[in-house]
Specification:
The structure holds 2 protein chains of 2 kinds. By secondary structure, chain A is mainly beta. Chain A has strands spanning 5-7, 10-13, 19-24, 31-37, 44-50, 53-57, 65-68, 75-79, 88-95, 105-107, 111-115. Classes of the chains: A mainly beta, B mainly beta.
């Protein structure tokens, strides 16, 4: 069964450093998402991406964040200058069609980001 | 700020039916409501999705009233392996954050 993959599984970085989290969505999917989950809290939406541009973003997704689909398979989340409060689990998800068509998002296993 | 709220936790025994309700007052009119299951240190896993009335699949049922301001996930006969956190996900009509996960319900199934 096809699945979303994410690398690395765990990333440790120093405050102020840039990090890039990588995702490989399911191959025929068209919509891509990033979420984060701070330890012990609920999952929070960050951004959605379709047709090579951001379609929606949350208030969390400020200028420190950016997303890119650099080639036909990868989908990346970049945090330009990490802060302690960016420490969280980051999940990538992909979807084949719009929600109105009754489709669903498939989540990757997550990348645990630790900012020291 | 648009919110989706759920009970923090629920306890059950093996073989019982469990119903978890999510309140989403400002849900968008044209989008589905989705429920996910999450185990520790894993990504959310799709359970069921619906728009209105009742949907049933091999693992759960989903009840959505006509006003769509809430939804109820029903797990018919839970087992120990159903111990997890359950989240609803809906697109909200107000606020900056459009896609909103519920607050999550931690279900503990005991023998």
């Amino acid at each position: 069964e096809p699945e979303v993959t994410q690398t690395p599984s765990h990333q440790v970085t120093q405050m102020g450093q840039e990090v890039i989290l990588r995702c490989v969505p399911i191959s025929n999917h068209l919509y891509f998402y990033w979420y984060r989950q701070i330890l012990g809290q609920k999952v929070e939406f960050l951004v959605s991406f379709y047709n090579n541009e951001i379609s929606e973003k949350s208030e969390i997704f400020d200028d420190q964040f950016s997303v890119e689909r650099p080639d036909g398979s990868n989908f990346t989340l970049k945090i330009r200058s990490t802060k302690l409060e960016d420490s969280a689990m980051y999940f990538c998800a992909s979807r084949a069609r719009l929600a109105g068509d009754g489709d669903t998002q498939y989540f990757g296993p997550g990348t645990r980001l630790t900012v020291l | 700020l648009a919110k989706t709220t759920q009970p923090i936790s629920m306890d059950s025994y093996e073989g019982q039916e469990v119903n978890i309700t999510c309140s989403h007052n400002n849900i968008a009119t044209n989008d589905y409501i989705t429920w996910y299951q999450q185990f520790p240190s894993q990504g959310p896993r799709f359970i069921i999705q619906g728009y209105k009335t009742k949907v049933t699949n091999e693992v759960a049922s989903l009840f959505i009233p006509a006003d769509r301001k809430s939804s109820t996930l029903s797990l018919p006969r839970v087992s120990l392996s159903d111990t997890a956190v359950y989240y609803c996900l809906a697109r909200m009509n107000t606020g900056f954050q459009k896609l909103v996960f519920g607050t999550g319900t931690r279900l503990l199934v005991s023998p």
